Amino acid sequence: MARFNLLDEPWIRVMVTKTGETEEVSLLELFQHAPEYADLAGEMKTQDFAVLRTLLAVLHTVFSRFDAQGRPYEWVQLDESYRQVEDVDEDDVEDYAVDLMQTWQELWQAGTFPPIVMEYLEKWRDRFYLLDDKHPFYQVLQEDIAPDRLKSGQAGKFWGKNINRTISESGNKEALFSSVGNIGKKDNKNILSAPEIVRWVIMFHGYTGAGEKIKFRLCPSGVKASNGWLYDLGGLYAGGRNLFETLLLNLVLVPEVDAYIGAVQRPAWESDSAALLTSYFALRPLDNMAEIYTRWSRAIYINPEHELTSPFYCELVKLPEVNHSNQFLEPMTLWKFDEKGENKNTFLPRKHRLHQSLWRSFGLIGSFDAEATGRAPGIYQWLNQIGDVIGNYQLRFIAVGMESDGNPMSRLLVNEIVDAFSVHDSILFDTGDAGWARRIEDAVEVTKQVVEKTYGMFVKDVLDLRNIADTGKRRTEYLEQLYFSIDAPFKEWLATLQPHDDKEVRIAEWYAVLKQIVRRQADDIVRESGMQEYKGRVVNERFQNIMTAYNSFRYFLDLKLPTKEEETHAEWRSE
């Protein structure tokens, strides 16, 4: 018996713009009222990121086949289920791309989604049941994971407390301070509502880890098991003024790689579970957004008779990972060039680093550093492409990611990484040699040099005076404290930049703020110094005390940031 259909049942958590309150809505409600919601509001931003990509898979599928008025493109052949029969003919791809851009522009101008989105979902209603014995959402059937299809043993078992990433409790170690306690019921941590199960299953496919051992017999030997495609991304997307705009800004209807234009969109729900598993084992290269956005990391089986008042568990088996090398179909990640190893001379997704703000990677977002090995994220290139349509827009870039426990055998997710900054679109895409984007990247690099070299050398001198052995770790702590103090002022400065501003004046303004913050941090160190630091000692055959170290720091700071003390126009954020 099919239960809990995602089209009708509320499960997506959103923030309502007018009230600021959080509520759960169904899939149909979300697309019908997207302009009324400020944002997704799930338990975690990484969960929101995974859900956002599922919503985008719906839109990619629909608007690759229909225009903004709900009419099929002349270049696309559809069956009775609105499924595209074959790729667009290569002779028609150029005209098809023009139509796609026209569709995107009309959607943006309309400010709401047309009825064809809901009509398409109704065609596939039977694929959106959470609990079902035929086509359960994002799951396989019991026969798909029968013991004779596995390399050894039976499918692994995953409990509610494992799949709920606000707990992430293993079977060996209890999460003492989880958001869900043990009050009232012995297995309280394992009890999940139907909406929670849907959200966590979607997120689990994206952020998985490596704890389970069981594999399929048909999985090709030597192929790595997936940790979840999102797990390895430096996730990056654009935030709009409401959920409709966020969805549209990230709806890359015309990919940067021409070979992907016109490919049939293949969301997971349009395939039977057995056929989907077969395609995974065949290692078919990905060529469409809907497929990479709905990619499974595990074959998950949930008993369709599961009682929601009982402890939740699912059974799962490992699936092959997505090829990471030069996977430019993926638009929502930073990239790094791998100069060694098995992926030598290719681009790989670059994960975010804990405690490192997104603006410190500003040059990677648009490859403003002009390195031969630089590559901008697809979402940046797409936003540049639609810049004339959105016009005069304050873009918000959101970074999301997960950090593991460092154990390659488990890769347990232990930290969520979330950050954001805002910048005017005309600033971001002014990429000439003397344009705003390059000047901002220069300012970022100067800022990092001041923190890590100028201030970093002072900190090292102080730690030497204090005869602290583990200077590397302690030095890093001091640097991160300074970066934390710089973070909000830099983001505010960046958000207030306007295309008509004088570049020299505004950049000098930031340098003045930076200098004041760095000096204040160094002054605090001097004030907390004791007799040992003032008395000094011989370090590397040179006498030094706190004041000689401080004077040296001031000299190099003035050399790097030669702003005048009387330039107080930057005190808008330094107090």
Overview of this structure, please?
The chain has 575 residues and is an alpha+beta fold. It has a domain at 436-560: Topoisomerase I, Chain A, domain 4. Helix content is 37%, strand content 13%. α15 packs antiparallel against α16 (503-527). It is globular, with a radius of gyration of 26 Å. 41% of the residues are buried.
Indicate the CATH class of the domain at 436-560: Mainly Alpha
Mean pLDDT: 90
Number of contiguous helices: 18
Estimate the global geometry from the Cα principal axes. globular
Widest sheet: strand ordering:
3-2-4
The biggest beta sheet is recorded as: 3 strands, antiparallel
The CATH topology annotation of the domain at 436-560 reads as Topoisomerase I, Chain A, domain 4
Low-confidence stretches: 566-575
CATH architecture identity of the domain at 436-560: Orthogonal Bundle
Strand content: 5-15%
| Distance N to C terminus | 64 Å
Structural class given helices, strands, pairing?
alpha+beta
- C-alpha Rg (nearest Å): 26 Å
Helix % is: 25-40%
Number of strands: 15
